[in-house]
Design brief:
The protein is α/β, with parallel strands linked by helices. The protein has 13 helices and 11 strands. Pfam families: 2EXR (PF20150).
Length: 437
């Protein structure tokens, strides 16, 4: 076997050929020559020199940027002082009222109350909607402690909100406290939600439920999401839930834009999502893995994920089409048979991003719309088989009964104090006629 030796210049000139048909022994000899220690040392030295050069250039660039920032901050400080002196002189010489009247451009508006009510309400509405849409995460503020009896009542209520990463926590919008009109408008946009706050179990935060997104996901099982457990129990119980649970659940059910992991959607009855009566958009979240069971237990898990749309005809685009088709069929079947007046929300899918570099590279490669799904390399049949098995939309009654005992047990049979080893609770059969779903 022979080959043509082709040499490329470092400067990028065309390849040069020696006009000789080299045999395998000759090519091997050339490889042996390149394997010498001194040549390897030269290669390492050249690469180290490049790294040092790039590091020096990076440091110089950062120093230049730091100097420019320092210069800008100094100029900003000087400008701030100049403007401060100007307004201070105006107030000293003319008083506040005259200063406000003659300052151009005006920095106050004192005749807002004279505007027509319709215009005032429009201004309050625009001010209430000025923040960009955010994504919030539903999490659990406590878990059932290990080692406690099966019927031990939980000490917390329903799910709480974990604000978006780097989000400034402002529990109460300022417009709530301006006047009655502004408060009335704000309460149409914001809803008080239970939020994560160490040592403050009753903490609330007003969140924009008009167009903010809320994500239920990142856990192995849907039972890790207390809100979903509470909704299922309420649908299958004649006993009312505890008042704090019910109140916070009603707040969370005002969500209009909901994101849910695929395995959560697949496991639960579709009726669960009809409980969100104001739901406008229901988005099913996919993970960029080859199997459906790979969740957050991977190097790429992030508690604050981002979500991206998928490319049509790509690997994840085809998955999205399959998921949406299944979801439409399930939603429409429930509407026909059980909830004819239900307005089915808009259905969508997104891909949850990951941090692991290797997996992120696979994600980028898989977005090629020209990839052939029949190729062995692009074979995704295993994922579809697993996903189809997950799509049960049903929770067995025995599991529902178990969830009731763990999360919302009945009262004691007697009010006498008893040791934990002999706790006796009234069972469902003694308090309820049966289940609703």
């Amino acid at each position: 076997m022979a080959g043509i030796l082709r040499v490329h210049s470092v400067e990028g000139e065309d390849a040069r050929e020696l006009g000789h048909d080299f045999g395998m022994d000759e090519l091997g000899e050339i490889d042996l020559f390149h394997a010498q220690d001194w040549m390897r040392a030269e290669r390492i030295a050249r690469r180290d020199a490049l790294v040092r050069k790039q590091e020096d250039e990076r440091k110089a660039f950062e120093e230049k940027q730091a100097a420019e920032r320092a210069t800008l901050l100094g100029e900003e400080s000087w400008v701030h002082e100049e403007y401060t002196l100007q307004i201070a002189r105006q107030i000293k010489d003319n008083g506040i009222d005259k200063t406000r009247k003659h300052m151009v451009p005006a920095y106050t508006f004192t005749r807002f109350g004279e505007l027509p009510n319709e215009l005032q309400l429009r201004i309050w509405s625009m001010a209430a909607r000025s923040n960009k849409p955010r994504t919030h995460f539903l999490v659990e503020d406590a878990d059932i402690p290990d080692g406690l009896p099966l019927y031990y009542p939980r000490s917390h209520d329903t799910s709480t909100i974990l604000p978006e990463k780097d989000e400034e926590t402002n529990d109460f919008p300022v417009l709530l406290h301006v006047c009655q009109a502004s408060r009335m408008v704000v309460l149409k946009v914001y809803t008080p939600m239970p939020r994560v706050a160490p040592n403050h179990p009753d903490a609330m935060q007003y969140l924009n439920t008009l167009y903010d997104r809320f994500y239920i996901g990142g856990q192995d099982s849907w039972t890790d999401h207390q809100l979903l457990v509470d909704i299922l129990i309420r649908l299958n119980s004649t006993r009312p839930l505890p008042k704090t649970v019910q109140d916070n659940m009603e707040r969370l059910l005002k969500i209009r834009f909901l994101l849910v992991d695929f395995h959560v959607f697949a496991a639960l009855p579709v009726k669960i999502w009809a409980e969100f009566e104001q739901l406008e958009k229901f988005t099913i979240v996919m993970y960029p893995y080859d199997e459906t069971g790979e969740w957050e237990n991977t190097p790429g898990y992030s508690p604050f994920p981002e979500f991206v749309n998928v490319t049509q005809r790509s690997k994840y685009g085809r998955r999205a089409e399959w998921i949406l088709k299944s979801a439409r069929e399930s939603f429409e079947a429930v509407k026909r048979s059980d909830i004819p007046k239900w307005t089915i929300p808009q259905l969508d899918t997104v891909l949850r991003t990951i941090e692991d570099n290797d997996l992120a590279g696979n994600l980028e490669d898989s977005s090629d719309p020209n990839s052939d799904p029949e190729d062995e390399e692009n074979d995704d049949s295993r994922w579809y088989q697993q996903a189809a098995r997950l799509l049960v939309h049903d929770v067995p009654r025995t599991n529902i009964k178990q969830l009731k005992k763990v999360h919302h047990p009945s009262e004691f049979k007697t009010r006498e104090s008893k040791p934990s080893s002999s706790l006796e609770y009234v069972g469902d059969s003694e308090t309820e006629a049966g289940v609703l779903v």
